Every structure is written in C-alpha cells, then in structure tokens.
Backbone:
C-alpha cells in the first residue's frame, strides 16, 4: 500500500498527515508498522481476554476444564476400552500432554478465523495494520495455555513423572504451534471476509485436524516409511515435540519436527502474503 506523508500546518502546530490509498498487486508485510502499533496489539489482547470470560460462572476455569474433560473421555474410550498404546506413559498423561498445545492451536485458529468479521466496526472506522487483529486473537490464548500447563505439571506429579532434561527445548514446539495457528488463521480470516461459508468449514476442519494429529494415539503406530509424509501436518511436530521435551518419551521426533517446521513456516509466510494482498479490500467488503 503506497503511503505519502506530508506536513499540515494547524495553527502553530505541525501535525504529520498520512494519506492512505488503494494499491495494486502484492504488498509488503511491513513488520516495522506492526511494532509501531504494539500498544494497540496489547489492548486488543487484554480486551479479548476480558470479553471471553465476561458473565461466565466459571471464568478462566474453562481453560482447564475443556482439556481435562476431553482427556477423561479419551482415556476411557481410547485408553481403557480400545487399549491404544501410549509410549510407556500413563494414557491420561499421554493425551493431556498433547491436548495442552492442541487446545491452544484449535482455539487460536477458530477465534482468529472470525476475528476480522467480529471487529468489522473497528475496521471501518480507523486505519491500523489489520494484521494486529488475528495476531492479538492468537496471542490471547497464551493465558489459557499457561493455565492448562500448570494442570499438566500437577498431573505429572500425580503419576510420578518428572520433567525430562530436554525441557529447555519446550519453546520450540510451542513456537511451532503459534506459527501454525497464526498461519492458518490468517488464511481463514481473510477468506472469511470474502466468503462467509468459512465459518461453517472451520469446525469441521478442526475436527478433521484433531484426528490426523497423534493425540489419542502415538505416531509410532504410523509405518516408519510414512512418518515423514505424516509430519507435513505441522501439529504432528508440535505434539510429538511437546511429549519428547516434557515427558521424555523415546520417539526421536527430530525428522518429524523438521518437516513440520518447514510446513508451518510455509503456511505462515503464505498466510502473511495472502492476508496483506486482500487487506486493502477488508473495509469495503466486511
């Protein structure tokens, strides 16, 4: 988007004026501009947190109850009845360790996909980098992740499983989950402005993504020759890396994490470019 700056004289003060015009073709991402609007980003994160749990009986406890009850259901049907293996880790702990990053990803993807439409009044009134909205939506889920992670540590204490010495690598799969949620969220949020059918596709997509990720089953059940292709799903690297770094399972997920990282990077880069390409039309269409 072309920006022309000039000085306008108002009385005795000189004020910078920014003229915004429609551009053609692909647009630069402008990360520096995002940094200049960091206060707005912080405000939107705080606003999303307050709105999410306003007038709720349990409040932020939902961030704990959702993965906890999901874990209980998985442990009953897949662990006890189906007898699915869990890489030598108690099955409830095995699934909960995967659900913590998964819930962060699923919540971030679902909310960010509809974030532009939800903030259409703000988009129409003032100018700011529209990238701030989906980024703030994904970032607000970090609080829920931290609450669920504390429960995970308590569950590890209950089962007598000490954190592995690989714990220092835990930020790697977490960063991979952030990149995946943001990349997919940018694609879907931009498409949702143009085609409102996206809001009906997202729940089905998340459900399909859940069962294509090794949450209720270990990736060791996938044939060795197919694991690299299986890791094209970036959440495979997130879940396996999370278990490896925290629980110390001997799955050697290095190759899968490498493939998942490449996929997540491509998803994020393409999402940024696609979002910026359509950004100029948001205020007219939303």
Residues:
């Amino acid at each position: 988007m072309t920006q022309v700056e000039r000085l306008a004289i108002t009385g005795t003060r000189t004020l910078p004026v920014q003229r915004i015009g429609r551009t053609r073709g692909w647009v630069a991402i402008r990360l520096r501009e995002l940094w200049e609007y960091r206060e707005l980003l912080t405000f939107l994160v705080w606003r999303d947190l307050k709105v999410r749990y306003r007038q709720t009986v349990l409040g932020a406890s939902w961030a704990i109850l959702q993965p906890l009850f999901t874990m209980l259901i998985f442990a009953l049907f897949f662990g006890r009845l189906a007898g699915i293996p869990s890489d030598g880790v108690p099955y409830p702990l095995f699934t909960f360790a995967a659900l913590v990053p998964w819930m962060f990803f699923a919540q971030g993807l679902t909310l960010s996909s509809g974030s532009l439409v939800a903030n259409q009044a703000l988009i129409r009134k003032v100018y700011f980098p529209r990238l701030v909205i989906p980024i703030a939506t994904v970032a607000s889920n970090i609080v829920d992740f931290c609450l669920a992670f504390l429960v995970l540590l308590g569950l590890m204490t209950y089962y007598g499983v000490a954190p592995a010495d690989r714990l220092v690598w835990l930020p790697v799969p977490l960063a991979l989950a952030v990149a995946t949620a943001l990349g997919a969220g940018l694609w879907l949020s931009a498409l949702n402005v143009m085609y409102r059918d996206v809001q009906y596709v997202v729940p089905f997509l998340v459900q399909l993504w859940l069962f294509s990720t090794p949450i209720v089953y270990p990736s060791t059940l996938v044939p060795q020759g197919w694991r690299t292709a299986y890791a094209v799903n970036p959440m495979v690297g997130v879940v396996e890396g999370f278990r490896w770094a925290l629980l110390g399972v001997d799955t050697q997920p290095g190759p899968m994490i490498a493939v998942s990282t490449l996929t997540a990077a491509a998803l994020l880069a393409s999402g940024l470019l696609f979002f910026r390409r359509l950004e100029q039309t948001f205020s007219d269409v939303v």
User: Anything to note?
Assistant: Residues 254-279 form the longest helix (26 residues).
